[in-house]
């Protein structure tokens, strides 16, 4: 992302900003929220990721002369507006939920407050980055859950949707739980563990498989992990691997193991395990890597396939079964003549009606089990959460019954990350992974289930709910007038 | 892609290259092919895209000091190998099928010939770029075919899998037929038409919809395209748009039209069309943009929805119904002691057995209908296609019956793009789109069908087929020995 994020922007953002510049006070302030409505793969939450790249871009948000020349060449924008852009002093405040946090539908993942013109210009690239990385972190969490503690290596660079998708995708995959990536650029850029062994082309570059394995063992005597499926796993690959493992051991080295990249993994791994064990290589690991995802891994492990590690390619790096996180960026408030006005986007679909106003989201823990979260609450930013709360389910498809929430400790999820009071954010990817694991451990097990997870309740405070209902009513009255 | 393509490489490519360096002659030459086996969305072909970025990267392929330091820090590679990389003189020759060409399964899209070490290091990023852009160009071709000549705008930046996916995806979408993109960075970088109007936030920034429309018309009197679904399309959006269109016309301006982004597009567009026509705005265009892809567009048009333009978001920029093109990079030949040896990758699955040897692919045209292609042929690179050919179907699931091909003109599809005799490649994206349209017009209509397309035949020459069969037999004999 050495590219210009400032121009990674839909044309209409510039068209609108130019229009605001012409017709509204230039310092008119607004609040926008990023949130999503649907969870990939019918899960119950998303793992937030991408914030570090958003913050990095916003800390240096400016338009180059080249950007301005391009925008001028479109003959769409006023000179005044282009001058405004050229001299832009970025002055938005951004609050966001830290990376690695499980986030539920409708919760504001990120909130931008500042001049409407500037808020508008951030929409496209903020969504691009958060949608992409959160999508991949979410998929990674699912795959790692299926792997039940076994190492999961991210191997998808060649099938990622472009260079950035491979690099930032690998970052997100590690936030979501992967132990390593095959992608050297990602490993270098983010300090990740790089992983990988050999391809079939290595085997084909030597007269036969045994010679190829011996050549590998000669170069990497202490890290020999051999790909055994070039010709025939059980007749050729594993027997040749065992020969070379014996030679290695005789020379004082211990082999790592084998990798199987095709065929029926349960049958092949079971037989290979027997052969390795019988030859005295009980510690040699078996890695599987053929078109795997959480569903396949669960099925293999349920069958008892003796697999130690997984290498995951295209199905992780593209989240192929659910390749889009449809996060949106919606106006929540606008300051008009010095007064904040909450804003709502209506729709015929209950699900698409937005939550108005500047908001804060809290995770609620029981006072007596302070490490177990039981619900989240979305409130207005300027209200203090009372000790006892009559809350309304945030799910627009749930009934409007009130529920009494009491005896809880509320932890605010958003932090200020850009602005005068900004906290510095965690950028160490392994620490983000550790934080994700801690937070997962605080959620009910049933909501982490990969298939048909239990719904984790997200509530609205009465104030927020009443504000939303009032705005809906006002719009309907206006429409009938 | 200002990032270092040289490190956008799976670790195992470096591990293998380091191993080759230690155990094989450093100038040992090889041939690798890029090809794919399965077409996204069950289509019959892929539109090749991404070559310009591959060539650009290869023309300047080198490792920086920083890259070398990183690789050294892994403690995996010999000093000799790291010095080789630091002083690498890239010397591979690359032949490829030009962008915009329809390419069928198993055809070599790109062929690299040169030192094995260097060939190996290109695998990851060459596949990343070709797989991604060809995937999106292919999806774009499908969506544009469904739109039957109506303008299709690429609107997906916010849901693309990272910044590059949005920028190179927009490029690929235009190669595949889109008229424009909302992505300013892509438009600037590749000289594409930028497109877009307003979001709902524009409407919400003014006291009411009519005021918002008037403000827009004031700023853009000659390009007023109004988003009419913020509150209610038929009761509010279209009547307000018509009011503003009348005011514009009275002031000597003609409006562009309206955009509908939610609701039932057929019903809303039909009624909106009536209202616009009755008000005298027969030329006002209706653009639709809600979660569209080729299937939805076909359904809407079949119902007679009066839509003039389409804006396509996430379903194009991620190819969401089929988000992976699984192109592979396989060794086809290796020069051992001065002699080229054809190489094959075996598998228990017929589909996965590779085509050995340095190859060339030809598109065949009938002599009497020189603008109609009827089949492709894959041959060995050093054989001259005879005038009459007993060919074997390249589809490993087809029978091995020979078919006589005669009275054809054969056009080679690959060009040398990197090397001593390299042709300069077309990089003008609109010219690539024009070339794609020309080449589509040469293919049978039935093979372009979006659902259940007819199979377009790809044949092997007898020499290539016999070589493949001989190598399979030799491997089986060796395995039994």
Structural notes for this entry:
Chains A, B: Pathway: Cofactor biosynthesis; NAD(+) biosynthesis; nicotinate D-ribonucleotide from nicotinate: step 1/1. Chains A, B: Belongs to the NAPRTase family. The structure is a homodimer. The first copy, chain A, is an alpha/beta fold and about 475 residues long. Chain A has 16 helices and 20 strands. Chain A has 2 domains: about 5-135 and about 325-480, nicotinate phosphoribosyltransferase (Alpha-Beta Barrel); about 195-285, Alpha-Beta Barrel (TIM Barrel), CATH 3.20.20.70. Chain A has helices at about 10-25, 50-60, 65-75, 80-85, 115-145, 165-175, 185-190, 200-205, 210-220, 235-250, 265-280, 295-300, 315, 430-440, 445-450, 460-480, and strands at about 30-35, 45, 95, 100-105, 110-115, 150-155, 180, 225, 255-260, 285-290, 310, 330-335, 340, 360-365, 370-380, 390-395, 400-405, 410, 415-420, 460. Chain A has a 6-stranded antiparallel β-sheet, with helices on one face. A 6-stranded parallel β-sheet of chain A has the order 7-6-11-10-9-8. A 6-stranded mixed β-sheet of chain A has the order 17-16-20-15-14-18. The first copy, chain A, is globular and about 85 Å long. Chain A starts with 10 loop residues before the first helix and ends with a helix. Chains A and B meet through helix 1, helix 3, helix 5, helix 6 and helix 7 of A and helix 1, helix 3, helix 5, helix 6 and helix 7 of B.
| Low-confidence blocks of residues of chain A | none
Mind summarizing the main beta sheet of chain A? 6 strands, antiparallel
N-to-C span of chain A: 50 Å
Arithmetic mean pLDDT of chain A: 95
């Amino acid at each position: 992302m050495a590219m210009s994020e400032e121009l990674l922007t839909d044309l209409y953002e510039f068209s609108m900003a130019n229009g605001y510049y012409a017709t509204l006070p230039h310092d008119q302030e607004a609040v926008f929220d990023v949130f999503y409505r649907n969870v990939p793969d019918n899960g119950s939450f998303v793992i937030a990721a991408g914030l570090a790249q958003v913050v990095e871009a916003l800390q240096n948000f400016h338009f180059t002369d080249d950007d301005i020349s391009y925008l001028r060449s479109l003959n769409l924008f006023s000179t005044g507006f282009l001058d405004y852009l050229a001299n832009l002093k970025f002055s938005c405040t951004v609050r966001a939920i830290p990376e690695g946090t499980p986030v539920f539908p409708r919760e504001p993942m990120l909130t931008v407050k500042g001049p409407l013109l500037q808020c508008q210009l951030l929409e496209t690239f903020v969504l691009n980055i958060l949608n992409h990385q959160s999508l991949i972190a979410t998929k990674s969490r699912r795959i790692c859950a299926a792997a039940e503690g076994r190492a999961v290596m991210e191997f998808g660079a060649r099938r990622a949707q472009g260079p950035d998708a491979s690099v930032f995708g690998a970052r997100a995959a590690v936030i979501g739980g992967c132990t390593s990536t095959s992608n050297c650029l990602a490993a270098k850029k983010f300090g990740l563990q790089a992983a990988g062994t050999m391809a079939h082309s290595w085997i084909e570059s030597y007269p036969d498989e045994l010679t190829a394995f011996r050549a590998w063992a000669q170069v990497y005597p202490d890290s020999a992990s051999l790909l055994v499926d070039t010709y025939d796993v059980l007749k050729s690959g594993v027997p040749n691997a065992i020969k070379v493992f014996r030679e290695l051991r005789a020379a004082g080295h211990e082999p790592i193991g084998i990798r199987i990249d095709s065929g029926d993994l349960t049958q092949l791994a079971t037989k290979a395990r027997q052969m390795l064990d019988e030859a005295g290589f009980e510690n040699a690991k078996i890695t599987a890597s053929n078109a795997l995802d959480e569903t396949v891994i669960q099925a293999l492990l349920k069958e008892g396939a003796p697999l130690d590690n997984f290498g995951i390619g295209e199905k992780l790096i593209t989240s192929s079964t659910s390749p889009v996180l449809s996060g949106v960026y919606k106006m929540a408030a606008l300051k008009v003549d010095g007064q904040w006005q909450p804003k709502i986007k209506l729709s015929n679909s209950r699900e698409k009606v937005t939550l108005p106003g500047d908001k804060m989201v809290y995770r609620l823990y029981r006072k007596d089990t302070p490490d177990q979260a039981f619900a989240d609450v979305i409130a207005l930013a300027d209200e203090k959460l009372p000790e006892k709360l009559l809350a309304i389910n945030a799910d627009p498809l749930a009934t409007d019954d009130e529920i009494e929430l009491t005896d809880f400790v509320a932890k605010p999820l958003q932090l200020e990350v850009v602005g005068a009071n900004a906290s510095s954010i965690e950028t160490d990817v392994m620490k983000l992974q550790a934080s994700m694991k801690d937070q997962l451990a605080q959620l009910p097990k049933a909501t982490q289930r990969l298939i048909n997870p239990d719904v984790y309740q997200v509530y609205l405070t009465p104030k927020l709910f009443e504000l939303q209902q009032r705005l809906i009513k006002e719009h309907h009255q206006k429409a009938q007038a």
